[in-house]
Amino acid sequence: MHIDIIETLPSLAKLEDNWNAVYDTDDEAQIFLSWKWLYGWLSCIPGPWFILAAKAGDAADLPYVAFFPLRLQTTIKNSDVFHEIRMTGSADYTGIVCRPEVENKVIPAFARYIRQMNWARFKLDNLRMSERRVRLLLACFPRASFHCTEVDMVSKVDGIDLSRCPYVTLSKDWNAYLETLSSNTRQKIRRLLKQIDAQGEYRISVSTPETFAQDLKTLLRFWEVRWRSRKGDRMDGLVRSNSAMLTRSFESGLVYLPTFWHGDRAVAALATLVDPRKRTFSFYMTGRDETFDGPPAGVILHAFSIRHAIELGYTEYDFLRGNEPYKYSFGCAERKIRGTVLATRNGRNLGGRIDRRSIPDVLRQATELHRKGKAADAEIGYRRILEVQPKHADALHRFGQLLTAKGDFAAAKRLFRTLTVVRPDAVKAWQCLGQVCESLGQYEEALRHHLEFMRLQPELTDGFVAVGRCMVKLGRMAEINAALLAAIEPASGLSVRRWRNGGDAPGQRADREHAMPL
Question: pTM to 2 decimals?
Answer without folding.
Answer: 0.85
